[in-house]
Prior knowledge:
- By secondary structure, the protein is mainly alpha-helical.
- The chain is 56% helix and 5% strand.
Amino acid sequence: xxxxxxxxxxxxxxxxxxxxxxxxxxxxxxxxxxxxxxxxxxxxxxxxxxxxxxxxxxxxxxxxxxxxxxxxxxxxxxxxxxxxxxxxxxxxxxxxxxxxxxxxxxxxxxxxxxxxxxxxxxxxxxxxxxxxxxxxxxxxxxxxxxxxxxxxxxxxxxxxxxxxxxxxxxxxxxxxxxxxxxxxxxxxxxxxxxxxxxxxxxxxxxxxxxxxxxxxxxxxxxxxxxxxxxxxxxxxxxxxxxxxxxxxxxxxxxxxxxxxxxxxxxxxxxxxxxxxxxxxxxxxxxxxxxxxxxxxxxxxxxxxxxxxxxxxxxxxxxxxxxxxxxxxxxxxxxxxxxxxxxxxxxxxxxxxxxxxxxxxxxxxxxxxxxxxxxxxxxxxxxxxxxxxxxxxxxxxxxxxxxxxxxxxxxxxxxxxxxxxxxxxxxxxxxxxxxxxxxxxxxxxxxxxxxxxxxxxxxxxxxxxxxxxxxxxxxxxxxxxxxxxxxxxxxxxxxxxxxxxxxxxxxxx
Length: 508
């Protein structure tokens, strides 16, 4: 049970709720804070002072004072009018991450909503009522208005929800779960719509996945290095101590451990080759740069998980309500664009190793395209084509979204972050990079088979054994997609990393 107590969330908590269905509750101290904050908003709403979104309209309509009798109606209308998202629905896990971050932000007491609002979001999470949230329509400033409006739409019994098998009316989903639709009061519609919860929620899941991919790329890179008769001398700690970037140091340490006790490397240690190709020798520098991108994105997302990104914000102890710009997603856009760029570099160097494994010009006397019967059989030729296509598409995802800005709301919102696009790109980049790494895993295992009876390092051996438990060696051509899908499943499940870390201990 995850308790929302007004404190920060962790990335691991977000994943537990989003992907594993961990239940959530509102802590008693947070509920008291919410009650105090709400009482303050009620006093403001009863007055005549112009206060953005409480007694006035929003955006360019900020100067329109709303009569007291229509102020609650404004909140429902905001939800209805802003629920204009487009495109495919977000996956359930991503919607759950958004809902959790929304509840956690509101629970910090600076938005002025009733405890009932947070409790309703939590009840929907726990009873697996997932609003249908289109992925497109946010400009990443004033918060993720359109996507969050679709979440709020479900809470008030409008729009659609997913029941796991399809879409049903939100009112029906709430009724099945024994919940009543929310009747919004002053400030509450605006509080549900303002926030960076799509950007941060999707970013949190992408950062966790990307961190796993950097470790997985070290594993597949070590396998390729050994299969290509490379040397691990370039990973010597003395080299990297002279350029102590944390990502580089971590990758080099992993590669030393993964290739330790390698009979393959020992077999040619005294050969006359001076150095390996960049895609082998420079793994610490390139994989390490991807790690730096992940670390930067992680640090930004972790701070966002402790934040309130609503507007205006209420400070009952000071008797103040302040309008600002905490909903602006620029810092998230920069971080998530950087993450996508790092994943592009990671997939790019993996694709180059994939080519070396199948290319008879570079694969150190391995069978062309890793088929023992080349000619009649094409082996893994097309797998490299696929990796090239994926890496190329990933480069398009690495083009930053957050340097773009198109004004909205009659130039009141004249510099938007477009960071929702950064979040969507980062998630897609994760999926593309994972597929490239899965291809390298599959091909490197096949290539290591050809080096028998020489044995790879303990880490590479554990990874190959995990592949072979699921995928037979390729002797003659067969339906290739089945092999690729099985390799991808191994990466998605974490089975290979688990086997390697069981043999070596946790990787960096």
